[in-house]
Design brief:
It is a single chain. The chain has 135 residues and is mostly helical. The chain has one domain. Helix 1 runs antiparallel to helix 3, helix 1 packs antiparallel against helix 6 and helix 4 runs antiparallel to helix 6. It starts with 7 loop residues before the first helix and ends in a 5-residue tail after the last helix.
Length: 135
Amino acid sequence: MQLGTQTASGSKSRLWTGRIVSTVAVLFLLLDGALHVMMPAQVVQAFARLGYPVSLAPTLGILEIVCVVVYVFPRTSILGAILLTGYLGGATATQVRVGSPLFAEALFPVYIGVLIWGGLCLREDQLRVLIPLRR
């Protein structure tokens, strides 16, 4: 079956799958951003382990939340995904720099990025035109 000939029910299920995948990523990122702003002991310990001053935690949390808000609105979702990709790339680089276990911690931001872009590709027909995946 070609992409252009999918049934309405296939489009509807793809749309809802994309919404669910995106929601999982958004909820995780909002929680993460809120924790950075609130700075519980776990965040303070993590920043010390990563070699960052804890005073940056609220700034990074607000930045993360702003990027998520940009992602959530349909008109700016692609820009939000691009901004979150940059943010998550920095998180990945930080984890690799400190020698975090690769699959358990270092690649976790990459997994979230896959959810961000995967959910968006499932929701946005225009994005699938720009990034065609062929069978």
